Every structure is written in structure tokens, then in C-alpha cells.
Amino acid sequence: MLLQMKKEKVLEEWQIADARNLRQLFDARLETVAEGKLISQMEFGAKYGIGSQGMVWQYLNAHRPLNIKAAAAFARGLGVSVAEFSPTLAQQIEDAADVAQDVPNIGLVAQDSEQHLQWVTEEEMRLLDKFRACGRFERAQAMVYVDSLPKAILPGQLRDKA
Hints:
By secondary structure, the chain is mainly α. Helix content is 54%, strand content 5%. A two-stranded antiparallel sheet has the order 1-2. The longest helix has 16 residues, at 87-102.
């Protein structure tokens, strides 16, 4: 029988550094208050939802790249922030939180105390896509511009000025 070996994923330098930082924190952790002794990798993995002892070992020794879920679990278990061992993942978490807060609530509009679906034209959709692609600063600048537009633009008014 022919066995096919999985190719081991090559980690980036920052991922290797993260594992090294995490390993230092893990090895320096304090004794658990309840038991008065260090818990094993197996117990740590089970208690904090990381997985088996093998998974904990793989993360600590840069055999598996840390992901946000595992990083959060290690941070919780070690009582530290993710930034203490992985500035890159901490930034990814922050970016994801920013995006989650920026998701607009579109689709429903109130008219005469009733809610109706609002259809969006292709042009409006293009504007929305471009707006969503902007950072906070660019969005603020765009809103200043939009707020400076006249309240009512008559059909053809912009065309005549062009």
C-alpha cells in the first residue's frame, strides 16, 4: 500500500516568532490556583478549547500556524492579551472588529410608520461598494462632501454644469 505524505505547510517568519513568544509565555505560566501545580498541555488544551495535547504542542513549536480562535484561547488560558505573543493576529482581530462595526443596516426603510424594502440601483450599489472599501478617514471625508451637496438637485442640473 502506498502512503501519501501531506506536505508540511511552511510558516512565515512572523508565525514562527509568534510561536516562540507563545512558548515563552506558556513555559513561564504560574501554577494554577485550584491545583497548586502546572496543568499539562493535554489539560490546558481541553480546558481552553484548543484541542488535544498534540495540537497544543504543534502551536507552541511552530508546526501549525496560530489562528485567531487558538490565539484567543491561549490568551484566555494564560491571562494575557493576544498582542503579547502575536501583534499580527491582534491586528487582524482589531481589523475584523472594525469591519463588523461598520456593516451598514440597509434594505429596510421606514415610510409612514411602515417598513418597506428599498431597491438599490446599480449606481447606488457601486457607490456603496466604493464607500465600504474606504477606511474610516476616507469615509468621513466622503460624508463631508455628501453633506455639502444641495438638498435637492433638479434632473439635468449636474449635466448642464459639466
